[in-house]
Amino acid sequence: MLEMLEMEFMQRAWLAGLIMAVICPLIGSFLVLRRQSLIGDGLGHIAFAGVAGGALWGYSPVLSAAVATIIGAWAIEKVRVRLSDAADMVLGIFFYSGMGLAVIFTGLNKDSGFNLSSILFGSLMTVGSRDLFIVAILGLCAIL
Questions:
Q1: Cα–Cα distance measured from residue 106 to residue 51, given in angstroms and rounded to the nearest whole number
Q2: Closest by alpha carbon to 9, among 123, 139, 114?
Q3: Is the dihedral of CA 61, 67, 71, 77 positive or negative?
Q4: In terms of Cα–Cα distance, which of 120, 102, 121, 123 is closest to 56?
Q5: pTM listed for this prediction
Q6: What confidence score (pLDDT) does residue 69 get?
Q7: For residues 139 and 23, is the Cβ–Cβ distance under 8 A?
Q8: How far apart are CA 79 and CA 8, in angstroms?
Q9: What is the pLDDT of residues 55-85, one digit of tens each?
């Protein structure tokens, strides 16, 4: 059983999983305490738009998703502070705007080699060294 950890791709998979296992509960508990538990769903839709946009314009889907998510979170917070009475409505607008952009970007992508499902529903077994580095840096930022 332990022989599988001798393989480099399994080491990356376990490390990425461990990083996420530490980060996700930290972020989740923080969001629940702030009564923003649905923001994860909204940012997921925005990240989907980032993945589709990155693939359309030839950028790394992981990095473009991270950039889109950070910009989306910043914009949601700015609007939420200004319109605190309509925070749910603001979140809904961002949810569906992200999904709409993702559908548009996916439709515009004519690259036959592009497989959106493999990016969105990938496997830990396919985590590369670059992906692991990105996850580790973003995880460190989240912890700080």
A1: 9
A2: 123
A3: positive
A4: 102
A5: 0.69
A6: 93
A7: yes
A8: 44
A9: 889 888 889 999 999 999 999 888 888 887 7
Cβ-count burial 116-129 (b if 16+ within 10 Å, e if not): beebeeeeeeebee
Q: Whole-angstrom Cα distance, residue 76 to residue 42?
A: 9
Q: In what helix (H) or strand (E) does residue 47 lie, and over which residues does it extend? A: helix 39-57
Cβ atoms of 102 and 45 within 8 Å: the answer is yes
Are the C-beta atoms of residues 54 and 60 closer than 8 Å to each other?
A: yes
Helix axes 129-143, 61-82, angle to 10 degrees: 20
**C-alpha–C-alpha distance, residues 28 and 59, integer Å:** 29
